[in-house]
Specification:
mainly alpha; 2 domains; 3-stranded antiparallel β-sheet; 11 helices; 55% helix
């Protein structure tokens, strides 16, 4: 990976080959600038790769979040739970990829939210995160019903609802039915995602400002952290 130093200052330019760098070098020299080509160090290249992966994971997390919230309001079960699982996984990996490379991240953690969550809390210690331990465990359960096998064999009770109150855990009343219970309140997941952005020091507006108006309305609907996640006009 190569870059250009223009008039004694490194520019934010990246080239995969010297030939590409020389093309711009010739143009800038013709304009009267002093230009030097340099090669990024291995450490710098790795840092750039992790920065790009961080951004990509966060972007995917937002997309899955939009799809999950839409499915939740539509009452699509269990698909909304599966989509929330994907969303939270992407958000957590966005933070962790800064420490682990993409391959190492996949090998160490796979798709297991509780394992990712524990590591995320170590890397980004914040007193606001532990209140969502139960929410993480509840979302992880929906990975079991990603395919119909267990539902067909054991049946299922599903409670995916909007709490509409401050985050004080109020789990569904115990049932006398024997089917496994899969549950979560999706406005609790809104709060969780808001806390992940805060703990990881990421600005959600970078990822949401360009969304279509109708998508912003969907994210704002009943969202207790809408003011954090969306620009003021949303």
């Amino acid at each position: 990976m190569f870059g250009l130093e223009v008039d004694g200052k490194r520019e934010n330019l990246r080239f995969v080959s010297v030939a590409k760098a020389k093309e711009l070098e010739s143009e800038l020299v013709g304009q009267g600038h002093t230009v030097a080509i340099f090669e990024y160090s291995v450490t710098e290249v790795e840092a750039m790769a992790r920065e790009a992966a961080d951004h990509a994971f966060m972007s995917l997390g937002v997309q899955y979040y939009i799809a999950a919230r839409s499915a939740a309001w539509a009452g699509l079960l269990p698909v909304c739970g599966n989509l929330y699982h994907h969303s939270v996984e992407m958000f957590l990996k966005s933070g962790l990829v800064r420490k682990y490379g993409l391959l190492d991240l996949r090998r160490r953690f796979g798709h297991k939210l509780p394992v990712l969550w524990d590591e995320f809390k170590k890397e980004f210690p914040s007193p606001g995160l532990t209140q969502f331990d139960t929410a993480i465990a509840d979302i992880e359960e929906f990975e079991d019903v990603r395919y119909p096998d267990k539902i067909l064999k054991h049946g299922a009770q599903m409670v995916v609802d909007f709490r509409g109150t401050p985050a004080a855990p109020n789990p569904p009343s115990p049932s006398t039915q024997k089917e496994p219970l899969y549950k979560f309140y999706f406005d609790d997941i809104d709060r969780l995602i808001g806390e992940i952005f805060t703990a990881a020091s990421r600005n959600p507006l970078f990822f949401t400002s360009g969304l279509k108006a109708e998508v912003k309305e969907l994210l704002a609907r009943g969202n207790p952290v809408a003011a954090q996640l969306l620009p003021p006009s949303s």
